[in-house]
UniProtKB/TrEMBL annotation, chain A:
Belongs to the acetaldehyde dehydrogenase family. NAD(+) binds at S162, A163, G164, P165, G166, T167, R168, K169, N170, N273. Transmembrane segments: none annotated. The keyword Endoplasmic reticulum does not apply. Its EC number is 1.2.1.10. It catalyses: acetaldehyde + NAD(+) + CoA = acetyl-CoA + NADH + H(+). It holds the Pfam family AcetDehyd-dimer. It comes from the Bacteria. SMART domains: Semialdhyde_dh. This is Acetaldehyde dehydrogenase. The active site is at C131. InterPro entries: Acetaldehyde_dehydrogenase, Acetylaldehyde_DH_C, NAD(P)-bd_dom_sf, Semialdehyde_DH_NAD-bd. One of its GO terms (molecular function) is acetaldehyde dehydrogenase (acetylating) activity.
Length: 302, 378
């Protein structure tokens, strides 16, 4: 009856639950499975209440029936360390994996920059970089599409409460993966990422600073226009993506100061870092779903 | 001359009574602390001028200068010297400043010249990674210090765990801006670092905000709660001119490692001036193993001449200590104030009010732009 593509969410934590709430509103995605590892997980209970099938046996608990349940897209909201294994298993069942961990085994996707290309490549695993990457790479790309960027650097500041145990244990994966995304998707020759965790109360809104060093003197007018255009693109799926100050031009330095307010679905509004991740993941899935529905793409077991 | 109080009998009596009371207290304190506790106490001093000192030098200390200074310190008996970008390994950035040479160049040049002194490097998770740590170990460091904001010790697990897997590496956990939380909360965080495997943990007064009692309460509780074999350190800043007094308080309360910097070369009004602290230790019978006169000479002959500006308690540095702001924000606030026609003190006070933490240098220009728009200065 439905013209939606069925999806499974792996990881019933904050990200998985927020993603579920967003996916419930989607025109193209129908979440049918929530996969966890802890039978006591409140996230699993919540998903069950919302009518999803659930398992606390990990991906293995879903594998036997996922094909007959029609799951064609999976989201991984667990951790970088278990991602490869999860991905291999669901790919074998013919489902595309959208990776919200910083494992980055598949090509990067930052929707306003390269979603069309990423989906056209029909990869069975696509990676969403990091929250800081989703918030800043569009700005690096906004500069690099105007002129050559030799160096791109981002500073993401998030509230303590929005930095989960996964991020904390593997903070190096954040800096490395984001830096790589700045180069590969943002288009800077060299990328650098810094993350700061601030415990202030009330929690501060996610803020991001983007510094680009251009090869030649920056074309101020063209860059400013490009930045505003790109912000409008991001706002289509994250309305609280806001330019606070800039672009500031200082010699060959271009600095852009952003703030990211979330929708407040499951996560509080200050956690714009998590919101932009789930929103980007869902937007990517929707684009895949549209391609599947249009008959342009048929995920096959890999 | 009107303001001068008249030397009436009542006035003189009040002054005299106050002076006597003060002397009595001072005498008691001196007796109790010096003579009874600290005579013969051995501590390790750790010099910061080639790391924290990178802040006032905007990270432009040359490899040559580092080698000259570290050799002089080695000769003076300084046991441990930190060498890194001011913001630690991997700190090279637009945000914090690009250094004159890479961490690798600095570290390998200094390490190979040391006869007795050991070399340390600083690492802030979120800025540097374990890859930088491995590089520093390959260059010959013997101490790694993993630094986080005082409430965020758990982001250091990856790095401390990795450091403890390297045989013989002295692994230190370093909690910054420690004035922002109470001693009880601080101990919980210190214990996390101890659990990850740090053999030494630090209470760091990054804002130079603490007064001696703040140091005493934090160090004493930590000493009581940590394993007896875990070393305990204190890192001061001199923004309220409390660097030496706070460091003495730390030693009295049970710390055995003290950070300082020759001539105080460091962020804000600088670190605890090391040559002064060493002289004070000498007087008090605390054993540092450092030659006091040689330390004075290094400060006077090598460090002071290379300062770009006098590192002292100027109005802005005092504001850092008064408002509890991360010391390396100093020059960034001065630059933004100049660029956008604002008062750097106003910027610093606002940064304190917003409870910014170490590393948020990017906030300064952003905030300055907000303030400038509000006040119509741009």
């Amino acid at each position: 009856m439905s013209n939606k593509i069925k999806a499974a969410i792996i990881g019933p934590g904050n990200i998985g639950t927020d993603l579920l709430m967003k996916a419930k509103r989607s025109e193209f995605i129908e979440p049918v499975w929530m996969v966890g590892v802890d039978p006591e997980s409140p996230g699993l209970a919540r998903a069950a209440e919302m009518g999803l099938k659930t398992t606390s046996e990990g991906v293995d608990g879903m594998l036997p029936t996922m094909k007959e349940d029609g799951v064609q897209i999976c989201f991984d909201a667990t951790s970088a360390y278990v991602h490869a294994e999860n991905s291999r298993k669901v790919n074998e069942q013919g489902a595309v994996m959208i990776d919200l961990t910083p494992a980055a085994i598949g090509p990067f996707c930052v929707p306003p920059v390269n979603l069309t290309d990423a989906v056209a490549a029909q990869a069975m695993n696509v990676n969403m970089v990091t929250c800081g990457g989703q918030a800043t790479i569009p700005m690096v790309a906004a500069v690099s599409r105007v002129q050559e960027v030799t160096y791109g650097e981002i500073v993401a500041t998030v509230s303590s409460k929005s930095a989960g145990p996964g991020t904390r244990k593997n903070i190096d994966e954040f800096t490395r993966t984001t830096a790589r995304g700045i180069e590969k998707v943002g288009g800077a020759h060299t990328g650098k990422a810094i993350i700061i965790i601030n415990p202030a109360e009330p929690p501060l809104m996610m803020r991001d600073t983007v510094h680009c060093l251009t090869h030649d003197d920056p074309d101020q007018e063209a860059i400013t226009r490009s930045v505003h255009d790109m912000i409008a693109e991001v706002q289509k799926y994250v309305p609280g993506y806001t330019l606070k100050n800039g672009p500031v031009f200082d010699g060959k330095r271009v600095s852009i100061y952003m703030e990211v307010e979330g929708l407040g679905d499951f996560l509080p509004k200050y956690a714009g870092n998590l919101d932009i991740m789930t929103a980007a993941g869902l937007r990517t899935a929707e684009m895949y779903a549209e391609e599947i529905l249009a008959g342009n793409f048929k995920p096959v077991a890999a | 001359m009107d303001a001068e109080p008249k030397p009436t009998w009542m006035y003189l009596r009040r002054v005299l009574v106050r002076a006597l009371q003060h002397r009595d207290i001072a005498c008691c304190e001196t007796k109790r602390v010096n003579v009874m506790n600290l005579q013969g106490k051995k501590i390790t001093v750790h010099d910061m001028c080639l790391r924290d000192g990178m802040h006032p030098k905007q990270h432009q200390i040359t490899v040559e200068q580092m080698v000259t200074i570290s050799k002089a310190m080695d000769d003076a008996g300084v046991p441990l010297i930190e060498v890194t970008h001011g913001d630690g390994l991997g700190g090279t950035s637009v945000n914090y400043g690009f250094p004159a040479a890479s961490d690798e160049e600095y570290l390998s040049a200094v390490c190979k010249e040391m006869k007795n002194a050991k070399v340390s490097a600083l690492l802030l998770p979120g800025i540097g990674t374990v890859d930088h740590l491995k590089m520093a170990v390959d260059c010959g460091i013997s101490t790694i210090r993993v630094a986080t904001h005082c409430t965020e010790a758990d982001v250091s697990e990856q790095h401390i765990t990795m450091a403890t897997s390297i045989k013989g590496l002295d692994t230190v956990g370093f909690l910054m801006m420690a004035h922002m939380i109470e001693p009880e909360e601080l101990v919980v965080q210190l214990k996390l670092m101890e659990d990850y495997g740090a053999n030494c943990v630090y209470i760091t007064d990054s804002a130079g905000y603490m007064l001696p009692d703040d140091v005493t309460s934090r160090i004493a509780l930590a000493r009581a709660e940590l394993k007896p074999e875990t070393e305990l350190g204190f890192h001061g800043h001199h923004n309220l001119a409390m660097g030496v007094a706070n460091s003495v308080a730390a030693v009295a309360a049970g710390a055995n490692r003290i950070d300082g910097s020759m001539a105080g070369l460091g962020a804000g009004a600088g670190n605890t001036p090391l040559e002064v602290f060493i002289a004070v230790c000498d007087r008090m019978g605390i054993e540092t193993g450092v030659d006091t006169f040689k330390a004075m000479d290094i400060a006077e002959d090598l460090i002071v001449p290379m300062m770009d500006h006098m590192v002292r308690v100027d109005r802005d540095a005092l504001t850092l200590g008064y408002a509890g702001v991360y010391s390396s924000f100093l020059l960034f606030a001065k630059r933004s104030a100049e660029k956008y026609n604002l008062s750097s003190r106003d910027i610093l006070v606002e940064l304190g009010r917003r409870r910014t933490v170490g590393g948020q240098e990017d906030m300064i220009e952003d905030l300055a732009l907000d303030m400038a728009k509000e006040r119509g200065t741009i």
